[in-house]
Amino acid sequence: MESQLAILLPVAAVWLAAAVLADGLPRLRDTSTLRRRTGWLLALALTGVALAAAAAIGGLVSAGTTPVGQAAEALTLAIGPAFVVAACSVRRIRRLWAGAGAFETAPGTPAPHGLRAAAAHPLLGLPLQVTALATVPAVIAAAGADLGAEPRVTGPAITVGALAVAAIGVRHALRHSRLAERALPVAPRSSRATSSLHV
Predict the structure, then answer these.
(1) SS3 category, 110
(2) How high is the mean pLDDT of the chain?
(3) How far apart are CA 188 and CA 199, in angstroms?
(4) What's the rounded Cα separation, in Å, for the pair 44 and 60?
(5) Residues 6+ positions from 65 with CB-CB distance below 8 Å
(6) What is the pTM of this model?
(7) Across 83-95, average pLDDT
(8) Residue 195 above 50 pLDDT?
(9) Rounded to 5 degrees, what are φ and ψ at 30?
């Protein structure tokens, strides 16, 4: 069990760090800081995807007979969201990093609302945070708690997890929508309205 925990802890730590970092990106108001932290997030996301893929392959090879196989079985819940990160989030993180890099020649430039809206997009942060949440039961189980032994705990735990995912998704959507509205160009006033002001 200890060897399984030693495998799971770094995996969970990478995903949790990526989830926290992704959550803070839309609050950054400086393009150089946004680019730097997006680079860190890209490295963490790629590391997390590589670890999830290694765990999935290790589980297929060993079929649960080794600590790697047991860790892979424990991470079954996180494999799906990790592949969503690989398919959707990594591309968006890379585009955000490149977009922030366009302001590299002018350090200290305020981050445009368009970049912050891209950082708040649900497909960037939500899969990372869902994957991080999905690693928690695996770590708890590897630490010695049998989550499936008590049916009265399993049902509410699944409900709380589903509500947490829904709340995170709604939060990302609202924040993205608010920042995207600020990024829209202000419509010019009509000449008739302006002329009436001078009458």
Answers:
(1) strand
(2) 83
(3) 19
(4) 24
(5) none
(6) 0.83
(7) 94
(8) no
(9) -120, 130
pLDDT at 39: 95
Given the structure tokens 């009458």, which residue do they identify?
A: 199
Q: How far apart, in whole angstroms, are the C-alpha atoms of residue 83 and residue 100? A: 25
- Spatial contact of 89 and 128, defined as CB atoms under 8 Å apart: yes
* pLDDT score, position 75: 85
Q: For 19-64, give the secondary structure using H, E and C.
A: HHHHHHHHHCCEHHHHHHHHHHHHHHHHHHHHHHHHHHHHHHHHCC
Least confident of 13-27, 29-43, 61-75: 61-75
Give domain limits for the chain: 2-197
Answer with the residue of higher pLDDT: 15 or 67: 15
Q: Where are the alpha helices (DSSP H) in 85-150?
A: 90-101, 113-119, 122-142
Count of other CB atoms within 10 angstroms of residue 157? 14
Beta-ladder partners of 30: 110
